[in-house]
Amino acid sequence: MSDQMHVLSMGVAFPEGRISNQLIEELDIGTNEEWILSKIGIRERRTSLPADYIKSSRNERPQEAVAVAQDTAESLGKEAARRAIEGAGLSPKDIGMVICNCCTPEASAPTEALRIAKGLGIEGEAYDVFTACPAFALHVDYLANFEAEELPEYVLCISTAVLTQNVNYNDRSASAIWGDGAAAWIISPRRPGRLKVLGSFFTADPLRCDAVTVDTFGHFDQDGRAVRDFSVRQTVRLLRNIEQDFQIDWHRDVFIGHQANRTMLAQITNNRKIPEENHWFNVTEIGNQAGAGAPATLCMNWDKIQKGQKIVVAVVGAGLSWGSIVFEGTGI
User: Fold this and answer.
1) Which residues, 6+ apart, have CB-to-CB distance to 237 below 8 Å?
2) Domain of 56?
3) How many domains does the chain have?
4) Fewer CB in a 10 Å sphere around the end CB: N or C, the chain?
């Protein structure tokens, strides 16, 4: 059913707080701006935590972060969803289904999808469809497995996370990576929109699930080098297959990857010879927003989409899992 699906609109939300490279350098954890820019390529990150809290506590007890946080995954997800609904010219009563991805939920029940739907006054069914970083691909591929008549006219998809609340700010690598944010998009199986879904794919390898972990009341942890190598190799594989199957022309078409860090993305674009102007990203100013990063990047470039242009999304992450989407601009 994927060739009948369209994305009508998108929305993003980021907290006001910022973590600069200078702030990380002031933590005196064995890093500086030069190292961060050369190894990770991120200049600034959005955070739901006050800077004073990060400086004084290093977030050594993540359970205390919830009490001082200025935003939650729910509040960011709700704001991104509100903007997506308004962008499609809809009201909450028009939404027939909500699916949400969140790797930093406030509780296991009710789910983030249910809480966000309640906050917006949505009465349709709502549940979580979760995989952390590759959520954009998972949500689109999940919906593509339905027949058009099985879905409501408007489906609201959300990916939201506040991972800075799970960062150990004594860890120089984790401190430099993460940002908070949310993205939302409206999919319709019947109404045409600016982006048509040409194809989607998602899969996972459960045997490697321990490579990336986020404990509910603990810190983010990963096997950094192994995950980075996997991410680059798997994204390149995804792109090679898509180039062959969809006749991609990188002088016209656009690549959006998982917003893990800038240097990893550069490895991928250099391998596939993707021009800088056709590589859209936001990680340098927002940080790694987990599953929100790729859709947020697309949303932030929404007005640049050209008729006939293909937008290739290839995302990887915890699970380990990976997936892709190929969109085409309709000119709407």
Assistant:
1) none
2) 2-188
3) 2
4) C
| CATH code of the domain containing 229 | 3.40.47.10
CA 207, 210, 211, 216 torsion: positive or negative? positive
Torsion sign, CA atoms 156, 162, 163, 166? negative
Whether residue 82 sits in one domain with residue 58: yes
Nearest Cα neighbor of 194 from 186, 203, 202, 182 is 186
1 pLDDT exceeds 80?
no
pTM: 0.96
Instruction: Tell whether 126 and 159 lie within a shared domain.
Output: yes
Q: Which amino acid is at 286?
A: I
Peptide bond into 110 cis (omega under 30): yes
Domain check: are 71 and 104 in the same one? yes
What one-letter code names the amino acid at 15? P
User: 182 has which bridge partners?
Assistant: 13, 160
Half-sphere exposure (Cβ direction) of 219: Cα atoms closer than 13 Å: 14
pLDDT band of 296, cuts 50, 70, 90: very high
Same domain for 108 and 40? Answer: yes
For the stretch 12-25, pLDDT in tens is 999 999 999 999 99
Contact 307, 331 (CB under 8 A): yes
How many residues comprise the chain? 332
Please give the backbone phi and psi of residue 48, each rounded to the nearest 5 degrees, phi first. Answer: -90, 0
Which pair of tokens denotes residue 247? 């006749």
Per-residue pLDDT reduced to its tens digit, 241-256 = 999 999 999 999 999 9
Using DSSP, state whether 209 is helix, strand or coil: helix
**Bond into 320 cis (ω within 30):** yes
